[in-house]
Amino acid sequence: MTSSTSPSAQHSPHTGAAEPVTPVGPTRQDEVARAGSELIGGPLGRRALLGAGWWTPVRVIALVAIGMFALGMVQKLPCYNGAWFFGATSQYTHACYSDIPHLFAGRGFSDGLVPYFDKLSGDMEYLEYPVLTGVFMEVASWLVPGDGTIQHREQIYWLVNSGMLMVCAVVIAVCVTRTHRRRPWDGLLVALAPAFALTATINWDLLAIALTAAAMLMWSRGRALAFGVLLGLATAAKLYPVLLLGPLLVLCWRAGKWREFGAAAAGTAVSWLVVNLPVMLMAPEGWKKFYTFSQERGTDFGSIWLILQQRMDSPFDTDTVNTLATVLMALACLAIGALALTAPRRPRFAQLALLVVAAFILTNKVYSPQYVLWLIPLAALARPRWRDFLIWQACEVMYFLGIWLYLAYTTSGDKHQGLPQEGYQLAILAHLLGTLYLCAMVVRDIVMPERDVVRRDGSDDPSGGVLDRARDVFVLGGTAAHPSRHAAAQSETGTHVVWGRERTAATGDVSP
């Protein structure tokens, strides 16, 4: 049986024929990875590349992900030992805040209230999370003992959720590892991402991210319906995954893969309805709280809108910000669509997925520090270069520290411990510029496909499924490209793909 790490063969989704698969070693292509590998004995050898013995890339990366997740839990230790409960400021100065213990009591889980059905005391009234995330939170609460102090029960609730989220983290790392068959070691970008470890247990985002990563793995295997079902479940846990249907629509339009897109869209709609419809019908007020809360909440932390609000004499009201954010997001999507339809070679699915999700993050009126998790798997697939990834991660770590120090400053009274408003605005700018830098690198790869490290070995779109090596049927303002069905194999034998033609290195001849 052929695995994703097998050196021998993989089956083409187009022809069913076996094609050679030789894993790409990042330490042989990436100067930063090569330099960093000296800490563990130098660049990977051939046996390590092929995953000889028990230590396959999937197993190594899964273990690394578990180790980094555990380090992230250790980083929360000061809060676990009391900062969550006995001092609002100390949980910020230690940068170990988490929503999870606070919402155990704050959203009625400690009292056995049923999300969406039972009304909460206070202004919130109902749980403000999508249905599948609410189910995740409820299941975790069942594993918390009913006796003991509320502080002890909140600690247990955080531990239970952390264990469940660790499973999600491993799923994410493994799915990314298996999505690009020739580049399994790119999964280390996810497993070793500093921001991943720091933010993984702030909230419940990893559930939606794991389902999205699994969906992209299914699409890369040509399973459009399974992709749609998983994407619909991810959207039932967090809103952002549905954005991936936009890039898929444009790419399937360019390649003429309407049947596959239809299956994906139908699977998404049906699985989302299966999860949401029962709650929608039986508890409509509780169900719609997530959507009304998202619309009604004001400008919040981490967004460009907050900088404008803090620096303007007459800041925008919430309705104006909603309108402006929606318009900017629509314009960004139109620009990304135009880029996809005019690029000299059809962009890879992961590239457009990253650009759309990043556009949503950049234009949104709130940026919680754990939202960086949405982009990490997409960044590993779209731009697997350690230099660019670490530049972006450094900016996100700066923001992670900045928001907690700013909250420490605002909650410490006259002591003013932490970061003042101007310093926090610089932290927001670091996040914005870091994300824009990553997007600029991806756009450059799309405009100049020869710069794309994933395509350097002759691959077309390893995460593209039916789009991989498919012919274009619609291109705006250009000639349709026809990438070879055996591009990766030919690159090993000296044949190079030149935008739909093949040039033999020995003779320079070009064949159609």
TrEMBL record:
InterPro entries given in the database record: GT87 (IPR018584), UCP010361 (IPR016570)
Subcellular location: Cell membrane
Segments of skewed composition (Polar residues): 1-13
Record-annotated membrane-spanning stretches: 54-74, 156-176, 188-219, 225-251, 263-283, 321-342, 349-369, 389-411, 423-443
Record's bilayer topology term: Multi-pass membrane protein
Coiled coil: none
Keywords: Cell membrane, Membrane, Transferase, Transmembrane, Transmembrane helix
Family: Belongs to the glycosyltransferase 87 family.
Name of the protein in question: Glycosyltransferase family 87 protein
